[in-house]
Amino acid sequence: MSGRLEGKVALITGAARGQGRSHAVRLAEEGADIIAVDICAQIESNLYPLSTPEDLAETQRLVEALDRRIVTRQADVRERAQLREAVEAGVAELGGLDIVAANAGIMPMRQGEDADAMDFVDASDVDLLGVMNAVAAAIPHLRDHGSIIVTGSTAGMLKGAADNPAFGPGGAGYSWAKRTLISYVEQMCLALAPRFIRVNAIHPTNVNTHLLHNDELYRVFRPDLEKPELDDVKAAFVAWQAMPIPWVEPVDISNLVLFLASAESRYITGQQIRVDAGSLIKHAGAVG
């Protein structure tokens, strides 16, 4: 542990698994204590399984194994009061707040007769309102010179990608939310600049998590197969990036979260930073 975040406290939403768990572990490796929040329950429109209390307990175990403190709370990012209570509990125990990683996200992918307007509502409520709620709950406690890091999406930045009709209303909600976060980050960075609090967004490409690896997404890529498996879709995943890889790992995103959380990025704010292996540049001309 080199201690780049020694004495800091980080709030992470969607922390039970995937990118959120990776962020919690990576920041803890550098000395941060963690407030870990996750819904640990299913959202009806989202057909692939979301996190469980056992997942959140595993995040706690991994952070504590690094000899860092962690406060875990089950909370729905769509409900500001729940987030406020979680943040207040974490701050009371850990003594402050310096970093926010607003990471929680979903992408419902119901299609055809199963699709519903609530798919759009749920996606935008989690992916946009959830970020806004996390930031709102954090600001009263966030110390000067802090950092807010928002999870966007390279696919969300590209018209015709996640908002392709094949993804249904949930894909449209996901894309609209992720694109709207771009202007949200830019405006919030101005509001918080007098306190030297940075606000930036990270836009990943495919990440090796449950949002990528699930039956619903596989079927979108291979509608000709009744139950496609990874080998059936992997070539399409590789084709998405300019670099010949199917996805990046959660730690590849966490390493950028760490940089943006540390004093090394003290004057970087209002930025949209892609970790996308060249995917946006490869496809922007085709679908932008």
Describe this structure in words.
- With 288 residues, this protein is of the alpha/beta class.
- The protein has one domain: 3-Layer(aba) Sandwich (Rossmann fold), CATH 3.40.50.
- It has helices spanning 18-29, 53-64, 80-94, 117-138, 154-157, 168-192, 215-221, 230-240, 250-261, 279-287; strands at residues 9-13, 33-38, 70-74, 97-102, 142-151, 198-204, 272-275.
- α1 (18-29) packs parallel to α2 (53-64) and α4 runs parallel beside α6 (168-192).
- It is globular and about 55 Å long.
- The model has no long low-confidence stretch (mean pLDDT 95).
- What is the β-strand count? 7
Mean pLDDT: 95
What's the CATH H-level superfamily name? NAD(P)-binding Rossmann-like Domain
Helices and strands, in order, run as: EHEHEHEHEHHEHHHEH
Radius of gyration: 18 Å
Characterize the main sheet.
7 strands, parallel
Q: Helical proportion? A: 40-55%
Topology of helices and strands:
Elements: E1 9-13, H1 18-29, E2 33-38, H2 53-64, E3 70-74, H3 80-94, E4 97-102, H4 117-138, E5 142-151, H5 154-157, H6 168-192, E6 198-204, H7 215-221, H8 230-240, H9 250-261, E7 272-275, H10 279-287
Parallel strand pairs: 1-2, 1-4, 2-3, 4-5, 5-6, 6-7
Short description:
With 288 residues, this protein is α/β, with parallel strands linked by helices. The protein is 45% helix and 15% strand.
